[in-house]
Amino acid sequence: MIGRGLLANPVLAAQYAGLPCGTAIETLLKIHADIAADYARRLQGNAQILDKIRPFWTYADLPKKIRKKIEKSKTLEEYLEAVNELA
């Protein structure tokens, strides 16, 4: 359950500890980049990477338009374009 909460608000732990933190979306994009890089090293083909990384955004609080683009993306390039709109 805490994992879902951290995906919805990735700076939650830092806020609780009273540590300085960036915005939630910046932190979420950093986590996403690390996970995507790991999948790229371990998986073969863009379809496998896309199938594994797309559920990352399930619990994140995203604008409806971008969430829909992420869910409907058929290629890794379309997916990355939608994710880059968050930045």
Give an overview of the whole structure.
The chain has one domain (2-84). With 87 residues, the protein is mainly alpha-helical. The two termini are 27 Å apart. The chain is globular and about 40 Å long. It has helices spanning 2-8, 12-17, 24-42, 46-53, 64-72, 76-84.
Rg on CA atoms, Å: 13 Å
Largest sheet features: none
Domain unit count: 1
User: How many DSSP H or I helices?
Assistant: 6
What proportion of the residues form beta strands (DSSP E)? under 5%
Structural class call reads mainly alpha
What percent of residues adopt helix (DSSP H or I)? 55-70%
What is this structure's SSE topology?
Layout lengths: L1 H7 L3 H6 L6 H19 L3 H8 L10 H9 L3 H9 L3
Brief overview:
The chain is mostly helical and 87 residues long. Helix content is 67%, strand content 0%.
